[in-house]
Structure formats: C-alpha cells, structure tokens
Design goal:
This protein is α/β, with parallel strands linked by helices and 634 residues long. Helices cover 43% and strands 15% of the residues. The chain has a seven-stranded mixed β-sheet, sandwiched between helices. A six-stranded mixed β-sheet has the order 14-15-17-16-19-20, with helices on both faces. Bound molecules: thiamine diphosphate. The site of thiamine diphosphate (TPP) has 25 residues, from loops.
Length: 634
Amino acid sequence: MTVLETIHNPADLRCLTHDQLVVLAWEIRQFLVDQVCHTGGHLGSNLGVVELTLALHRVFDSPRDTIVWDTGHQTYVHKIVTGRAAEFPTLRQAGGISGYPSRAESVHDLVENSHASTALSYADGLAKAYALRGETSRAVVAVVGDGALTGGMCWEALNNIAAAKDRPVVIVVNDNERSYAPTIGGLANHLAALRTTRGYESFLEWGRRVLGRTPVAGRSLFDTLHGLKKGIKDIIAPQGMFEDLGLKYVGPVDGHDVGTVESALRRARGFGSPVIVHCITRKGLGYPPAEADEIDHFHGIGVLDPDTGRSVTAAGTSWTSVFADEMVRIGAARPDVVGVTAAMLSPVGLHRFAHAYPERVFDVGIAEQHAVTSAAGLALGGCHPVIAMYATFLNRAFDQVLMDVALHRLPVTFVLDRAGVTGPDGASHHGMWDLSLLQGVPGLRVAAPRDASQLRSQLQEAVDTADGPTAVRLPKATVGPDIPALDTVGGTDVLARSGDTDVLLVCVGVLATTGLQVAERLVQQGIGVTVVDPRWVKPVDPAVAELAAQHRLVAAVEDGVRVGGVGAAIAQALSDAGVPTPVRTFGLPQRFLPHGSRAEILDQAGLSVQEISRTLIELIAHLGRPFATMERTL
Ligand SMILES: Cc1ncc(C[n+]2csc(CCOP(=O)(O)OP(=O)(O)O)c2C)c(N)n1
C-alpha cells in the first residue's frame, strides 16, 4: 500500500513521520502528473504546492481552522488530502470534481473562486466574524501566490488586516516568482529582494541553535546578531514594507521542505497577530517537462502524453492566435497602438506583439481595474491601447470601463478573449456577462466576429475608432472556415436567405454557424429564414429593425446571459422603432453554469441546433401559417 492510499483526511497526515511525508510528496506528484495529463488542468501550480499543502494541513485543523486559497487553481493537493483522490479521473468533466474549490464537494472548501486576489479579504472578514462570535481559537489562513498578491484587493485587505493586531490572520505567500510568466512590478522586486535574505535566515537559525545553548551570554549575543541581521536586511532588502504595514514577517522559507514550512507555520500561528509567511516554491517541481517549460511551467495544460509532456490533441488555430497575428500587423502600421495585459500576455495573445514591439506592451500584473484606467491614461496621452483580457475578468473592472474610459469617450479597445461559454473551468470562468454588462455603457461599441476574416476586419475597425471605446469578443474555440456574406444591409451581413420571410435569425458572433444549421432545419419544415450577423452587436444596427419589420418573428442567438443581452436590446430597439415583430432570445440562463465541455454546456443551456430549431418550429406554428401559404390561399 502506498502512503497516499492511507490518506483520507487531513488527520491522517498528522501521524506520518518525516520520511513518510517525503515519500507521500513524491507519490502525490506522480499522481498529479498521471491524472492531470489525462484530464487537463492546472498542473504546474499544483506541483509547486505539494509540501506547502501537507504542512498547512498538519499545522492547522481544517475545517475548524479555515484555509482560504487565493484563486483556487492550486487546490488539487488539498483535494487529494481531503478525501477526493479517487475522483480525480473526473476532474473538470461534466458531473465530475471541479478544478477549483467547491463547497458542494467538501467541508474543507469554504470559498469557491478562480478570480484572483480575493483570499485576504475573505480572511479579513472571517477573522472579524470569529472575533465577534468569540471563536478566537479558530485560525484563519490565506494562501496567496506572488502573482495574485499583485492584485489591488490584496492591498486593500492588507491595509485592514494589519490594523487589527489582536485579530490573527496567517497569510502564506506562495512565491514561485511567476504568475503565468514571471511576476512583474515593484512587489515582485520586493519579494525578490526578500529571497536574497534566505542566507541570513539560515544564519539566524544556526545562531538560535548554537548560541541558544549558553543561555545568558548566548541569548544576548544571538539578539545582537539578530539585530545585525535585521540591519543588513534593511540595507539590502527593503523588507520594511510588510513590517511597516504592521505585519509580522516570517521567512523566506524553503516551501519544499515540509518540516521547515511546518515550523514557520507553527511560529506564525503562535504569534496571535497578523503575519506573513513567505514560502519559496518552484512551479512544476518534480515533472521535468513542466520544469523545462519557459512559457509558464505548465501552469495549466490540455491533455498531454505524461511521458513526453506533449499535447495529444490536434491543435487547430485558436481565435487568440488570429488576434495575436493581427495585432502584429496593426502594430506595424500604427505606432500609437499599444497592448495592455493583466498578467496574461500569452494566454490573451499579446506575446507576438510584445516580441515585435517590446516597448509598446504593458503587463500590469493581476490588476484588471488598474489595467483599464491605466489604458485610459494611455489613451489620454495619445496612444490607442488594446487591452486584452478574458471576458470573465472584465467583470471586476466594470466601473473603470464605465467611468474612466467611456465617460471620457476614450479610444480604448477591449479584446475579450474566452467570451461566452468556456467549459472545464466552470462557473466563474464562463465569459457570459460581458454582453449584458457592456449594454449599459454609453458610447461603447461591441463587435462579435463570426470568423477569422471578420475578427481581422473588426479589430481594424475597432482601433480605427477615435471617438470612444470598442470591445471585440472572441470565443474559446478554434476558428472555423470563413462564412461569407450574401449581402449587406446597413452594417448587417446577410448570411443566408431561404424561402419566405418568416424568421429573422440574428446571430451573435461564432453562433452564426449554429444559426445557419438551424436555418437548414427550418427550411426543411417549409419555414422561410433570413440569417443575419449584425457584426457590431451594440448598439443595435437600425438595419436589424428594418429587416425585422419584414419578418414574422425575430430570433436572437447569443452565448451571453439572456438578461440584458443582445436579444433584449433588439427587442427594445424594435419596440422603440414601433416594429411589432416579436423577439425570442436564445441565450444563457441567469444561473451559474457548471463545468464540462463547451458543447455540453451549450446543449444544457438550450443552445443546440436541435433545441433552437424545435422551439422556433413550435413558435411559428403558434403564430399561424407562413405568409406565403396564406397569400396563396387568399
Ligand atoms: C482576476 C484574475 N485575473 C486573472 C486570472 C488568471 N490567472 C489565473 S492563475 C494566474 C496566475 C496566478 O499566479 P500566482 O498567484 O502566483 O499563482 P501560481 O499559479 O503561480 O501559484 C492568473 C493570472 C485570474 N484567475 N483572476
């Protein structure tokens, strides 16, 4: 029996010897590589926190003590030691375990997240609640990466946590020097400076052991040396930042030595006041392909051959890749165009632009709000920023989009990658709110390209827009073949026209393909359909109202939440224009959608060709016979 097979809950860890822990860490790494290479998921981040997680669960008594994991992508080891190892073959699959903490899965998962930089705020609130309820023996621990620590919320939380000396929060900084790419900025520099003091920590430890043996003289000599060390540290490393804030600082400690991490955590717990434990770890540790990968140490992977670390799925061209190439072309023609990313240079496709024009791309860290207002500043200064982020992360920067960009009518282009249903990352990663949120932003135009050619032309139109912001949304998918327009009415492309003018099918972006397939089915049933792509889905193109007036039913198909989305905007525009044609919207329900494949989630949401066709056939039947039939019989 392996050591891993004996672990069913955190208590099982506490009876292990040091040697057994070392074996367990090795077994967990093997397990992670085997499992995650088959399902896809966050491999590198989890390989880096094996010992840290074991130490946390040995020192703290979860769930009585509360451990909040920032972002949550690094909780696989936590899941393994809290009784979920057997479920790993289902990781991120429909109906299986989540790639993030999940309250439905375990009492050890208090917070469901995936959006970074929130753990310290949760911890602050938990510590306040435990104090008010007199549950002061319950420890509150927040585990945060050096990447997530660049997020503004962390600093807002630190400001509060540090102020309450009698409300202990243990903040474990998991410092692997990377977000996806190396973490950048002043904070990263500060952590780097602290890392260089590691020698002094060992020296301090040695001093404590050796000099501590001669109680009186030894103690004072030790104190002198400690003071000396602090002095040197202050010169070579401005460690004062944390201590000046009022936080105790322990570290840096080797995050791959369970014993060292454990004793640091025990010390931290013993302080009874807010403390930072600075752990140095290595992303991808123990799996050579991950360690060797320079892009992101296999932060997150698709399905891989575990022996080689190479992808086993045939890769098509992603939308991100088309955007990446187009940005390089635009950059050559437009020296004022600059790129902005919030710690996701490669995932959002700005890496090629950065390679071509290194001085024209700004990675601001995991700081979407700052990214947007910083882009506003760039625009005020005469640049045209293209700020690329996942659609789901725009949510937290809504006020900045509204007030700092739109109110000033600034020429900023938002490129919203992974818009719509994304799939295995689950509820918090579906990019399903952007269309509804952005509907309310005055002067902002939103493009939803249906194919690669449209992406190129609409991105160009976006950066050519000088009098206000634009957004271009891209799905998480590979691009299909181009879908040519038969005709253009106003700004709206007509993609298919068959039979009578029964249904006007308005398709948002990539759902044009779905719309065309629905049209085929309707035509087979004798229903006439016009399929259109408005290209710019906000504001509603007046041509859509004109076309709607010629049809009996408008159907809008979008992969955003139905409430306040494109269909709702079309219905409002028709009503304002006095066009009586009814509108039926096919979009995402107002629910948090689970994880699974993109196709599975779209199916469940009723966005399959079959379901849309069935509904439209029924609706048309209710509306009465097609016009042409009526005319013929009259
Ligand atoms: C608000 C937000 N922006 C971007 C991301 C995408 N993201 C996921 S993990 C990650 C890097 C996190 O780095 P770090 O906190 O150091 O954790 P590590 O994986 O290095 O352990 C990023 C940028 C996110 N989850 N949340």
